[in-house]
Design a protein that fits this description.
The structure holds three protein chains of three kinds.
Chain A lengths: L1 H4 L8 E14 L2 E15 L4 E5 L6 H8 L7 E10 L11 H7 L4 E4 L13 H13 L3 H14 L16 H13 L5 E5 L7 H18 L2 E6 L2 H7 L2 E6 L2 E7 H6 L4 H8 L38 H5 L5 E4 L2 E3 L23 H4 L7
Parallel strand pairs in A: 3-7, 3-8, 5-6, 6-7
Antiparallel strand pairs in A: 1-2, 1-4, 8-9, 9-11, 10-11
Helix pairs in contact in A: 6-7
Chain B lengths: L3 E14 L6 E14 L5 E5 L6 H8 L7 E6 L2 E2 L6 H10 E4 L14 H12 L3 H14 L4 H4 L9 H13 L5 E5 L7 H18 L2 E6 L2 H7 L2 E6 L2 E7 H6 L4 H9 L23
Parallel strand pairs in B: 3-8, 3-9, 6-7, 7-8
Antiparallel strand pairs in B: 1-2, 1-4, 4-5, 9-10
Chain C lengths: L1 H10 L1 H19 L34 H37 L1 H16 L2 H12 L5 H11 L2 H15 L2 H8 L4 H37 L10 H10 L2 H4 L3 H28 L1 H8 L5
The chains are: A alpha/beta, B alpha/beta, C mainly alpha.
Chain lengths: ~350, ~280, ~290
């Protein structure tokens, strides 16, 4: 089955280049700009689970809104491109009708709150009709046969179709939203903290189901969560975001075995484990305010390895080993400063800043 | 004989479910007993999933909800019988809560320092400079200072800082017991262990007992002395925290432990058939 | 506060327009203090004159200057709306906050009274009230009655806000900081409730003016006191539109419409500004 989905060549499914998405707000004359996504480039391959880790205000939520072109003002795309293998152009250049047709059919979502997807006053069966019927384009009877087969493959009892969302447990609801997100066999799925609200026992089952569904339909998943233990068991590759930037990226096993960025190292080091009583070193300070990020590397005020250059220059994300990129001067002398911020001198051009660079 | 700081005696809480005439009853907490020793401060973990009754139990200990049956005694006195402003105030001076969501623990429209000063005034009778000094003392115990907090609104601090301020506020009256309900579940990972370790320091340096309510076995293992594991209102296993978690006996405790994901199982494919990390080289 | 007003005037068109319209109406009401003619006197000027430089809004068939009479009418109408709004806000604030914070039996009793007021048919009741009182009907009495009838919806609104505030964690922090109930309600919860009170005040003024005009036009109020409604009532009594003295009807109608639109625009724009969420994001919080 996966062969069908990988039939379009071997390139990445998602290619993000220099993406910038800022919150730009104007309240009664006061202009504020929050650089939630600042110059992120990454690729996600076919049949791959890409884990994106980051804490609150790291910009990971803004990032997924941006790559799905689901951002609404005040979050504006300021620069960069987002291309999917199944689209003939940048997603920001699609007209709204095409975008609507692409969602669910090619681009699935699994969100944290299943109640946001499932209409509380409609049975699950009707939710399937609402989301998927027009994308699949089969007669009703065949459509429901397909839904039933899909549920069976994901080990969900067929009775759920007749239930209302509130009649199901949280874990079961989340399983239903996974079935909903995968029924159209999308090439790319965005999973946003899909198990954060669930209990551990249920979480394990739901994660297993996401993996199984992914293998079954051969799609790629961008899996976003703050929980490094989940990433360790879920992701093929891992990207670490800090303060709106990607600071490290590599195969999950490599990242956990030899993290190169001090922030990544801290995240892994401070993970509590049963059976481990070793003292955990604390990291001082707090994530920066993205409205006024510190100069240079955004991690330097908290970094145990901070050097002089870190306070002045932003490290570029540099490939140090095959597939392993890191943005830290302390990691290797190969890491060079990033090219100067192209819109750094724009602080006074407030009116201009309100116009998104992309024509949306 | 009554050297117990807190004793929870066969406590049960039943909530009526359904319509006006209570068609059904739901036992949120079902015959739970344990005791904390007054002379030996400890971190006592109550572990369970949602619906296990751990939060209801914590609210009964804080005297926010009255038990249906059984009794909770604090220093020998039944907390359900605490009536009147003076007695309540004395109880709150000795038992203080720490809540789950640090962003909700303070009114977003109000400055944070007022909670600290108000606590100092109500429970320690301090005003002006004296109240500020008490607040500063408490904040220093959690690694902050009054100067960092003065005049600030909650949104100006990070979740980790806010949770520290919440702990500092709870320390001002000089409590003997802190009831912390999921205190780190909404705190970022890079700040979480610092707060968890702080609890240990409070136990050792200030001799405060802490009831640590959590769903997270790993942090419970890291800091607690004793543990009870709750399922559907009942205690299924209890004892020394390390002993219980290293070698759980009850099937539910075993299941719970097995479900905890750990970075040590990378590539073992415990979530699915295909072992991950098969696309290392791009 | 002044800076806020200046910003609002500069950046919020609804607020600016609302302020201008309301200022026109209030300005006219203030002019009543300088009126050359007492409001109760009739045949002080030649009757039925069309608008001119001497009488900008013309004169009535009763020999009153329409402009100066209208200044009194607007003053009374605005005062009426304002009194009703203040009185009914006080009741709704008290009932809503008490009900929402106390809960339990207090809540059940208060809300059953509240709901009785919500379902009561207002207009027939007010007409009935007029027929009972007849000549004893005064402006102040009507204001009192309308205030007693006009609080219930907003009390329910305030109650629901209070109920959700009561369960928020910061309320518990306040309790364990040793704050008394009255301190918690006034210091912690008031900032969330006041915006509702403000925006409903303006809407309530509009509502009570509307009802007063309706009742007056039909003659179910104290018709001797000049209000916008009673002016239209007298104009109709003298068949102003048939006789061609249109200015007697058109100017009061125009001014009361300006009042409605002005207050409505103010309510809408203030609502947006005072809302705690938007206030929070202006303070710099609440953004991802």
């Amino acid at each position: 089955m996966p062969a069908e989905a990988t039939g379009q060549g071997a390139g990445p499914v998602l290619t993000v280049r220099n993406l910038r998405a800022y919150y730009q707000m104007r309240y009664f004359g006061i202009f504020r700009e929050v650089r939630a996504v600042d110059d992120i480039s990454l690729e996600i391959g076919r049949n791959e689970i890409y884990g994106l880790a980051g804490e609150s205000s790291s910009g990971k939520t803004s990032f997924i809104k941006a790559i799905a072109a689901a951002n609404r003002p005040p979050l504006n795309i300021v620069g960069g491109s987002v291309r999917y293998s199944f689209l003939d152009r940048d997603i920001f250049r699609l007209d709204p009708q095409t975008l609507a047709a692409v969602r669910w059919k090619h681009l699935g979502y699994i969100m944290q709150g299943s109640m946001n997807v499932l209409n509380p006053v409609r049975r699950i069966r009707e939710s399937f009709v609402d989301f998927a019927f027009r994308h699949i384009g089969l007669p009703k009877a065949q459509f429901f046969a397909l839904v039933a087969a899909h549920l069976e493959r994901l080990h969900l009892p067929p009775d759920v179709l007749r239930a209302y969302p509130h009649e199901l447990s949280g874990g079961m609801r989340q399983r239903v939203t996974i079935a909903l997100a995968t029924i159209c066999r999308p090439e790319f799925i965005i999973a946003d903290e899909p198990t954060t609200a669930l209990d551990v026992v249920v979480q394990k089952g739901v994660l297993g189901m996401i993996r199984e569904a992914q293998q079954e339909i051969g799609s790629s998943i961008l899996f976003v969560t703050h929980d490094m233990a989940v990433h360790a068991n879920m992701a093929d590759r891992l990207g670490i975001m800090y303060a709106g930037r990607l600071v490290e990226e590599g195969p999950t096993r490599t990242i956990f075995a030899e993290p190169l960025h001090p922030y990544t190292a801290h995240l892994i080091q401070s993970l509590p484990r049963i059976g481990d009583l070793a003292p955990k070193k604390a990291l001082g300070g707090a994530p920066p305010n993205l409205a006024e990020p510190p100069p240079g590397c955004r991690f330097h005020p908290r970094c145990p390895l901070a050097m002089d250059i870190c306070r002045r220059e932003t490290p570029a994300l540099t490939t140090l080993a095959p597939g392993h990129r890191v943005a830290c001067f302390a990691a290797s002398p190969e890491v060079r400063p990033a090219p100067p911020d192209e819109d750094a001198g724009r602080a006074d051009g407030r009116e201009a800043a309100l116009q998104p660079a992309e024509g949306r | 004989m009554s050297a117990d700081l807190l004793s929870v005696e066969r406590v049960t809480k039943v909530y009526a479910r359904g319509g006006l005439f209570g068609r059904g009853a739901f036992r949120a907490v079902d015959g739970v007993s344990f005791a904390l020793d007054a002379d030996r401060p400890e971190i006592f973990a109550i572990v369970g999933e949602s619906g296990s009754g751990k939060t209801t139990l914590s609210r009964m200990i804080l005297n926010l909800v009255a038990p249906t049956a059984g009794a909770i005694r604090f220093r020998g006195q039944d907390v359900a019988h605490i009536r009147g402003g003076r007695a309540r105030s004395a109880f709150m001076g000795a038992v203080q809560p720490i809540f789950q969501n640090p962003f909700e623990a303070f009114n977003p429209l109000k400055r944070i320092d007022r909670y600290l000063l108000m606590t100092a005034r109500r429970f320690r009778g301090a005003r002006g400079q004296e109240a500020e000094r008490l607040a500063d003392d408490a904040l220093r115990k959690v690694g902050l200072s009054f100067a960092e907090v003065r005049g600030r609104f909650p949104h100006e601090l990070s979740g980790g800082q806010l949770q520290r301020v919440a702990i500092a506020r709870a320390l001002i009256p000089g409590p003997a017991l802190l009831v912390a309900d999921e205190p780190v579940s909404m705190v970022d990972a890079s700040l979480r262990m610092a707060i968890v370790s702080l609890f240990r320091a409070l136990r050792d340096d200030l001799r405060v007992s802490i009831i640590y309510i959590t769903h997270d076995l790993a942090t419970a293992y890291y800091i607690s002395d004793r543990i009870i594991i709750m399922q559907k209102g009942k205690v299924v296993e209890s004892g020394d925290a390390r002993a219980v978690l290293d070698n759980p006996q009850h099937p539910y405790s075993i299941l719970l432990k097995e479900s905890v994901l750990s970075p040590d199982t990378i590539g073992e494919g415990i979530l699915g058939k295909r072992p991950p990390a098969t696309v290392d080289a791009r | 506060m002044l800076a806020i007003l200046r910003d609002l005037l500069r950046y919020n068109r609804e607020f600016a327009a609302g302020t201008v319209l309301t200022a026109i109406v209030v300005g006219m009401a203030v002019l009543s203090a300088f009126s050359p003619y007492p409001p109760g006197d009739i045949y002080v000027v030649a009757p039925d004159l069309p608008p001119s430089w001497d009488h900008p809004f013309g004169t009535t068939s009763q020999g009153q200057d329409t402009f100066w009479l209208l200044t009194y009418a607007l003053r009374n109408t605005l005062l009426f709306g304002f009194s009703v709004a203040i009185l009914s806000r006080l009741i709704s604030l008290l009932v809503g906050m008490l009900s929402g914070y106390k809960g339990g039996a207090t809540d059940r009793v208060l809300m059953s009274i509240n709901d009785t007021f919500i379902v009561m048919p207002l207009f027939p009741l007010l007409v009935l009230f007029y027929f009972v009182m007849r000549d004893d009907m005064t402006w102040a009495l009507l204001a009192l009655v309308m205030a007693l009838l006009g609080w219930a919806y907003d009390a329910r609104l305030i109650r629901s806000v209070m109920m959700s505030l009561r369960t928020r964690e910061f309320t518990r922090t306040a309790v364990f900081s040793g704050m008394r109930t009255d301190q918690i309600v006034i210091r912690e919860h008031m900032p969330y409730v006041l915006p509702i009170v403000f925006s409903t005040t303006l809407n309530n003024i509009n509502w009570s003016i509307g009802l007063e005009v309706t009742l007056s036009v039909l003659g179910f109020t104290d018709i001797e006191t000049p209000t916008v409604g009673t002016m239209i009532f007298w104009a109709n009594q003298h068949s102003a539109l048939v006789f061609g003295t249109w200015w007697w009807v058109v100017f009061p109608t125009l001014l009361v419409t300006v009042t409605f639109i002005g207050l409505f625009l103010l309510a809408v724009s203030m609502n947006e500004y005072i809302d705690p969420r938007s206030r929070l994001s202006r303070m710099g919080g609440g953004v991802a």
